[in-house]
Amino acid sequence: MATMTLREARTRQDLSQRGLAERAGVARVTVSHIELGKSDPRPHTARRLSAALGVEPRQIAEFHPIVVASQLRQPTIRPLMGRSGA
């Protein structure tokens, strides 16, 4: 599975920034800022853009930090000490 930039993924499908934004339900400026490196996408935005492009988030270079961070976040389960089950 090759990694590509958001712009590469978008242009492979012959989509404009506006077309991708409409398909993903985000603002066009959001797509522009991510492509230009002016902002990092929030996790839900990365998922929406990936879904609109039909790719996994890990296939988009700009989304790598989000994918890595989500893999590192594992819930910590701590036993309740000093409490009885009654």
- Which CATH first-tier class would you pick? Mainly Alpha
> What is the oligomer described by this structure?
single chain
Low-confidence stretches: none
**CATH superfamily label:** lambda repressor-like DNA-binding domains
Total strands: the figure is: 0
Helix content: 40-55%
Please provide a written account of the structure.
With 86 residues, this protein is mostly helical. It has one domain: lambda repressor-like DNA-binding domains (434 Repressor (Amino-terminal Domain), Orthogonal Bundle), CATH 1.10.260.40. Helices cover 51% and strands 0% of the residues. The chain contains five helices and no strands. The protein has helices at residues 6-12, 17-24, 28-36, 43-53, 64-72. Helix 2 (17-24) packs across helix 3 and helix 2 (17-24) packs across helix 4 (43-53). 24% of the residues are buried. The model has no long low-confidence stretch (mean pLDDT 86).
